[in-house]
Amino acid sequence: MSIPVTLELLDLALIVIAAFVAGIINALAGGGSFLTLPALVFTGVPPVAANATGTAALLPGYLASAWAYRDLIRAPRGMTVLGVVLIGTAGGAVGALLLLATSNEAFRVIVPWLLLFATLLFAFGPRLNQYLARRSHGTGGFWGRLGVLGVCGYGGYFNGGMGIVMLAMFRLLGVNDLNVANGLKNLLSAVLTLMAVVIYAWGGAISWPEIPPMALAAVLGGLAGARIGRVLPPALLRNGIVVVGTVTTVLFFLH
């Protein structure tokens, strides 16, 4: 896989701005990949490497969010926190290995559909969660564990919309307290992303020159997002993410 080893000034500015805004978005609602993936592809990073690099750059934000919610983490009924972590680790590993096995040509075809799926999740996520909260069975049996494994596999393969998918899964498992669901989401996001990044690095899929500036920008964006979230209406933010996701999806389909 051919990965760039130097950064032009304009490319650096683009990915730093994308990572900063992605950090804000992730701190508020998730969806930062809508910005980091196209920004990296635009600067010449191959699609698979762009996905892996963007995920690695946003990892510090996931770890910080998991730590911030540590006192609210509760396992779904019938499961344990350790069990959830182990499933998340396994799912993240499977998804990351699948990404490494995907060629850039195939990923170019897959990405627009994944972006479309993630955009639809953001658009209808609140209604989906409300529906699942009414229909939840609260069971962490075999199918519940399999569902968590599948969601984490998706997250290890493609980061976009991962938070919404996780919240929907935890609603289905009977976790109706949004703060607890967010705590679980942040924990799983950190665990599976960490595992995925380790595998991406092992497979040589990460473009390292972009990581330090993007990671720093994402952390600063996350801190800014924590402040913005106190004054910005959630509906306005979600609508903005849906618009960004729609434009990005259309551009990838056209490309």
Question: What is this structure, in a nutshell?
Answer:
The protein has 255 residues and is mainly alpha-helical.
Textual characterization of the structure:
The chain is mostly helical and 255 residues long. It has one domain. It contains 10 helices and no strands. The chain has helices spanning 9-28, 33-42, 47-68, 81-100, 104-135, 142-157, 162-172, 178-202, 211-228, 234-254. Helix 3 (47-68) crosses helix 9, helix 4 (81-100) packs across helix 6 and helix 6 crosses helix 8. The longest helix has 32 residues, at 104-135. It is globular and about 50 Å long. The protein starts with 8 loop residues before the first helix and ends with a helix.
Features:
single chain; 255 residues; 76% helix; globular
Write the layout of secondary structure elements.
Blueprint lengths: L8 H20 L4 H10 L4 H22 L12 H20 L3 H32 L6 H16 L4 H11 L5 H25 L8 H18 L5 H21 L1
